[in-house]
Specification:
single chain; 335 residues; alpha/beta; Nucleotidyltransferase, domain 5; 5-stranded mixed beta sheet; 10 helices; 18% strand; binds 5'-O-[(R)-(carboxyoxy)(hydroxy)phosphoryl]adenosine; binds zinc ion
Length: 335
């Protein structure tokens, strides 16, 4: 079975080709250089760049995989959530290919895709818990079985990746802030005490207070003309931002038995988070397997969409709608 998958939910135009579970190509065209000067993603610019790039990316994926479009069996694409205009470009490209080559379409939920990025290097063990940490989402997703998703905790305001990006903007570090802060944090010390956000018994998160606390801290230091190192601010923020993810994960694992925990989304690339999660599992949950996506598959990519599509097709997606897709911001009719 050959799947062509398209991901265009935010600022990456990506097309992947899979032969069953084997990844033949995963082309990602990043728009970061275009959005960098605005300090974040400009939705209208993102849509226009997707329009410009999508055909080249499809062509390159096909060439890399050394297949022809006639050989493709299914066209998968990101249905949502994401930027409406960006999603629309990927969906229209998918529909066009499906119409031309008479192939079935497989709509995939973006976060389900992030979770299934893990499946490219590790089998899943159910029941499992996924900690989804991206620029738009921070969620605990309980999966009793294949493609069964239940959100058991989520952020009440900002997502963790969003907080990284906003703190980076205040420190004038560029976009996206996550990787830059992660790197700087390792060169600094967490000398500034910041409050652990939403440090309660719930499985929910809150990051807007932490972001404001960092902004206030910087303003106070500047008002008092005290010099500070950006590295120390980054280290202080990263400590609290990741500590709360670990504390909440421990809480969930104590209450809900699972065989595996998977981290998913852009922030899954965070070195501190990966190390702390490994520590937690080694020290307290030795019988729970830990799955982390390869670094190249943490951010947005079409390989994860294709992998999730593969399992949906096996389950006959027409008869088994994906529960999580009810959350999609962009609904789509059947082709
Ligand atoms: O999953 P993703 O690529 O896009 C969304 O679906 O949102 O996640 C992007 C987010 C950005 O906020 C980015 O700053 C963050 O992931 N990110 C990181 C790291 N790498 C990317 N955050 C913390 N540490 C990192 N190493
Ligand atoms: Zn994403």
């Amino acid at each position: 079975m050959i799947i062509l998958a398209i991901e265009s939910s935010c600022d990456d135009t990506s097309v992947a080709i899979l032969q069953d579970k084997k990844l033949l190509a995963n082309v990602v065209s990043s728009q970061v250089a275009f959005h960098n000067k605005y300090g974040g993603v400009m939705p209208e610019l993102a849509s226009r760049l997707h329009v410009e790039k999508i055909t080249y990316v499809i062509k390159e994926a096909i060439a890399t995989a050394k297949i022809s479009l006639e050989e493709v069996d299914y066209i998968a694409f990101t249905q949502g959530p994401g930027l409406i205009g960006s999603l629309h470009v990927g969906m229209q490209a998918a529909k066009t290919l499906a119409l031309l080559y008479e192939k079935p379409l497989v709509p995939i939920h973006h976060l389900a895709g992030h979770i299934y990025a893990n499946r490219l290097n590790q089998e899943f063990q159910f029941p499992m818990l996924a900690l989804v940490v991206s620029g738009g989402h921070t969620e605990f997703v309980y999966m009793e079985n294949e493609l069964k998703f239940k959100i058991i905790g989520s952020t009440l305001d900002d997502a963790v990746g969003e907080a990284y990006d906003k703190v980076a903007r205040v420190l004038d570090l560029g976009y996206p802030g996550g990787p830059i802060i992660d790197k700087l944090a390792h060169q600094g010390n967490p000398i500034y005490p910041l409050p652990l956000p939403k440090n309660d018994r719930s499985f929910d998160f809150s990051y807007s207070g932490l972001k404001s606390a960092v902004i206030n801290l910087i303003h106070k230091l500047e008002q008092r003309h005290e010099s500070y190192k950006k590295e120390d601010i980054a280290a202080s923020f990263q400590k609290v931002a990741t500590d709360i993810l670990i504390q909440k994960t421990e809480r969930v694992l104590k209450q809900i038995p699972v065989r595996m925990i998977a981290i998913a989304g852009g922030v899954a690339a965070n070195q501190a988070l990966r190390e702390k999660m490994q520590n937690l599992i080694d020290k307290k949950f030795k019988n729970v397997a830990l799955s982390v996506p390869s670094l190249s598959l943490c951010g947005d990519n079409a390989a994860m969409i294709g992998m999730c599509a593969y399992y949906r097709i096996l389950q006959n997606h027409d008869n088994a709608p994906l529960d999580i897709s009810a959350l999609a911001t962009y609904s789509i009719e059947k082709f």
